[in-house]
Amino acid sequence: MKVSEIPSALTKIWDALEGTNKMRASLFNLLVITPKNPHTEYVRTITHKVLERFPSRVIFITLDASEDHLDAAVSLTPGAKGGQGAYDVVCDFIEITAGKKNVQKIPFLILPHLLPDLPNYILWNEDPGQDNPLSHALEKWATRIIFDSEVAANLATFAGALLKHSRDCEIADLNWARTVNWRELLASTFYSPERLAALQQAQKITITYNAQETTLFCHTKIQALYLQSWLATQLGWNELSRFELKAEKKPELPPGTVISIDVFTSGEMHFAFCRDPQFPNQVKTIICDTEKCEIPTKYIFSKTQSGLSLVNEITHNGTSPHFLKVLEFLSSKGISC
Predict the structure, then answer these.
(1) How confident is the model over 74-99, as pLDDT tens digits?
(2) Segment 308-327, tens digit of pLDDT
(3) Which of 6, 95, 180, 238 could join 73 via S-S bond, C-beta 3.0 to 4.6 A?
(4) 233 in the Ramachandran plot: left (φ > 0), alpha (ψ -120 to 50) or beta?
(5) DSSP run (H or E) holding 247
(6) What is the residue-wise DSSP string for 243-269?
């Protein structure tokens, strides 16, 4: 299908559904930009996860460097199902495959299909460190650009590129979103002045992460690096000598998942946070000193689900100041994944 035929094709589809219990709905426009590679189907999967929760118009752009063609396709994708007697929500799913000679046309191809007066969220699945002019052209319309550090060749360069984008629009990263449970747990544990002082006096902080790679995920260290940098920036530390990143392989857990965090203080206190092997969304917290151990407590993480990080970042308002500090830290230290 030619790109110019998209509106008429959508009209035909909706005319055919007239009188059924299908209802068209969109809360926002979701633009997905991804190169054609094995990661593309994963991106498609998490895009559908968004539609299950929030109806939107999807414009899914695949960049095919091996071809010069320009093709389009349209379909309807089911969103949230209504109850008995209610309408089922369906969403427009517009696909455009662009060869290398047509990449510069993409902003002009997309613009007519953006629903007016709605937020525009962009999932950018290329390494922003390569400074693709397309990302800068699209950010003019973007409410928020969501990146995926998994595709980054160098984390420090990635961080620097995101800082540049943050000047013009809201930004986020899927791996940063995946650390939210750990950040909330640590913040709730070290909430009191006494606990915070103990953390400030930490002699060693060990972060253990799942180094089990898959065909889609090979940068398994990123979430641990984010947590390390977040702790350092929040505590005002300018060096990382107190940190140890420890790799373990746990095939039953998602790649890069943080397994445990151990904090050893100069006052001989030990704060241990460890996932339950049988229930990975539960983290046991044990706090001990030389004289006693407190009763262990459990903290319940939200269950890991493919696509949930993207959903959370779409619903998040603004760019996290903590995330910006982490990006500045990673960029200045030249930290690589």
Answers:
(1) 999 887 665 555 678 899 999 999 99
(2) 788 888 888 899 999 999 99
(3) 95
(4) alpha
(5) strand 243-248
(6) EEEEEE--TTS-TT-EEEEEEEETTS-
Q: Are 285 and 206 in contact (CB under 8 A)?
A: no
What's the CA gap between 304 and 311, in Å, rounded? 12
Weakest mean pLDDT among 82-86, 89-93, 116-120, 143-147: 82-86
d(C-alpha 47, C-alpha 122), whole Å: 11
311: its two tokens: 């959903």
DSSP secondary structure of 217-245: ---TTHHHHHHHHHHHHHHT----TTEEE
Q: How far is CA 135 from CA 144, 175, 312, in A?
A: 12, 20, 22
**Are 222 and 256 contacting, i.e. CB atoms less than 8 angstroms apart?**
yes
Place of tokens 């790679």: 213
- Whether residue 274 contacts residue 260, with contact meaning beta carbons closer than 8 Å, is answered with yes
C-alpha span between 239 and 228 (Å, rounded): 11
Local structure of 100: helix, strand or coil? helix
Beta-carbon count within 10 A of 286 CB? 15
End-to-end CA distance of the chain, in Å? 41
What is the bridge-based pairing of β-strands 29-35 and 120-124?
A: parallel
Q: How far apart are CA 161 and CA 174, in angstroms?
A: 15
**Does residue 65 have a pLDDT over 80?**
yes
SS3 at position 115: coil
Lookup: tokens for 119: 């937020």
User: pTM score, two decimals?
Assistant: 0.92
161/225 Cα distance (integer angstroms): 17
